[in-house]
Amino acid sequence: MKIIVTNNHYELGEAAGKDAASLIKEAIKEKGQANVILATGTSQFETLNQLITEKDIDWSKVVMFHLDEYIGLPITEPASFRKYLKERFLAKVPALKASYLINGEADPEEERRRLKNIIEQHPIDVALVGIGENGHLAFNDPPADFDVEDPYIIVDLDEKCRMQQFGEGWFKSVDDVPSQAISMSVKQIMKSKHIICSVPDSRKAQAVRDSLEQPVSNLFPASILQLHPSCSFYLDQSSAALLSSKHLV
């Protein structure tokens, strides 16, 4: 696992986006197609901004999945992750070969089965992820299920997770934050060949320390990334503030 500490969130996004672009181009060169997972939320703003400006990516050979979506939230709502990706990514890379967004307005069981059948035919080359203030990976809040085999699962969102979504300004009140979501499972994320984890902001400093310095535990869901053979953590000075010196060389 690599840990890269940058000066600020702009440098973080630039470095993570360049890394992602390189890995996507490498996958296309090796097998003619790249299958990617994109995360959403404020932590991904600069990473995605950098990625879409990278040159020489043949987007017509890229297939995109995403991590999670609220159940029952219309795509017209500001907090919809489908809306986020349509506006911040898909509209800017119209040549994409395919994109498979999670429809939180569909029947949840039918939707996760639909996506299961698709993603099982597309081994993931590059996953862009973040971690939550509670250490969640996608919407796998603690204690996360590290063993479930299904690629997509229905999850209940804990209070700290819902408070984070409200605190970031996506909802008018915490009561407006849905209580359930369809989330990519931890096992499915860990199947990715490469993982790029972008985590800016002091709000995430404790979660970063727990993820990198605590033993792997479902109480710290993102700690599972310690076991991945090719995972890079991109941090800024604020999110890295609580790390021990061994991680800051």
Kindly describe this structure:
The protein has 249 residues and is α/β, with parallel strands linked by helices. The protein has one domain: Rossmann fold. 30% of the residues lie in helices and 19% in strands. It has 7 helices and 10 strands. The strands form 2 sheets. A 7-stranded parallel beta sheet has the order 1-10-9-6-2-3-5, sandwiched between helices. Strand 9 (194-199), helix 7 (205-213) and strand 10 (231-236) form a beta-alpha-beta unit. Helix 1 crosses helix 2. The longest helix is centred in the N-terminal third of the chain and has 23 residues, at 9-31. It is globular. The model has no long low-confidence stretch (mean pLDDT 96).
Compose a concise summary of this entry.
The protein is an alpha/beta fold and 249 residues long.
Write the layout of secondary structure elements.
Blueprint (H helix, E strand, L loop, with lengths): L1 E5 L2 H23 L2 E5 L6 H9 L8 E5 L1 E3 L10 H8 L9 E3 L7 H12 L6 E4 L22 E5 L2 H9 L12 E5 L1 H5 L3 E6 L5 H9 L17 E6 L13
Parallel strand pairs: 1-10, 2-3, 2-6, 3-5, 6-9, 9-10
Antiparallel strand pairs: 4-8, 7-8
Helix pairs in contact: 1-2
CATH topology: Rossmann fold
Q: What coarse outline follows from CA principal-axis ratios?
A: globular
Helix content: 25-40%
Question: Per CATH, which architecture?
Answer: 3-Layer(aba) Sandwich
What is the count of structural domains?
1
CATH class: Alpha Beta
Question: What is the succession of H and E elements?
Answer: EHEHEEHEHEEHEHEHE
Radius of gyration: 17 Å
Q: Can you count the helices?
A: 7
Adjacency order of strands in the biggest sheet: 1-10-9-6-2-3-5
Structural class of the helices, strands and pairings? alpha/beta
Poorly predicted regions are none
Oligomerization state of this entry?
single chain
State the total count of DSSP E strands: 10
The residue-averaged pLDDT reads 96
Distance between the termini: 14 Å
Question: Proportion of β residues?
Answer: 15-25%
